Amino acid sequence: MAKAAEILCERWSLVVIRELTAGSRHFNDLRRGVPLMSPTLLSRRLKQLEAAGVVVRAQDGRGVAYELTAAGRELAPLVELMARWGSKWVRRRLGADDLDAGLLMWDIRRTVDASRFPGRRVVVRFRFADAPSGKREWWLVSHGGVIDLCLEDPGFDVDVVVEAPLRIMTAIWMRDITFGEAARSYGVAVNGDRVLRRVFPEWLGASALAHPPEKRGVHRGAVVGTKERRTARPRTAHPSRA
Questions:
Q1: Positive or negative, the Cα torsion across 140, 143, 144, 148?
Q2: What integer pLDDT is reported at residue 235 of this predicted model?
């Protein structure tokens, strides 16, 4: 136990392993999944995990890639168990500083169901007015079954615009509240293409740690907050394509 802790209990090590189990393979992808970790520290942790036989470096079409070894893959149940433990017992302590638009959007990008989109290019713009400057607007681009995430306008026509407080979008993602409830009472508006708007909850997906329907609302106060509740219904006009 002590020897395992020497390897795994260094700060961020298990979070890096979580990203690798989720499918990230390249340094920049790992950085997006661990936005609070400096590049220098990420590089150091990868080298430590490689030396411990948990991670191996490989080459692919994008350059250097990182993969879990057999030893690393055996940690997947441990990582999932710790994540579920944190979701159950620590989530009620979430504060505004714990919310991160980049991490949320990166997780959403990983689980968007591209099969719900038509064959043509589809662009969805997310707006979080309460997010820090530089992280308020995001674009998901679906084309040919591939989902890309952009922090800068990719220059294509926008099909759907999603406007929501960051905390509420996080609550939707974690299934603490339903999309319908968020749209009715928490200032969430989805404007644009009628068909895509209607199936929004289906193509959006949910976090791997989301509460099943029977558990929804258990941690509502931790994520939503009563002060953010609104009574006005959102508009449903088509977004500008300017």
A1: negative
A2: 44
Report yes or no: 174 and 207 within 8 Å, Cβ to Cβ: yes
Q: Cα separation of 34 and 20, whole Å?
A: 11
- Confirm whether 235 is domain-assigned: no
179 pLDDT exceeds 50?
yes
Closest-CA residue to 24 (of 62, 53, 50) = 62
Q: What angle do CA 122, 114, 22 make, to 5 degrees?
A: 125
Quick check: 172 and 179 in contact, CB under 8 A? yes
Q: How far is Cα 51 from Cα 46, in angstroms, rounded to an integer? A: 9
Contact by Cβ (8 Å): 147, 158:
no
Nearest Cα neighbor of 17 from 59, 68, 81 is: 68
Residues 83 and 198 in one domain: no
Distance between CA atoms of 77 and 68, rounded to whole angstroms? 14
Q: What is the mean pLDDT of the chain?
A: 85
**C-alpha distances in Å from residue 150, one per residue of 46, 102, 120, 128, 164:** 26, 10, 18, 14, 18
Range of the domain at 6: 2-88
Q: What is the pLDDT of residue 163?
A: 97
Decide if 236 is inside a domain: no
140 and 27 in one domain?
A: no
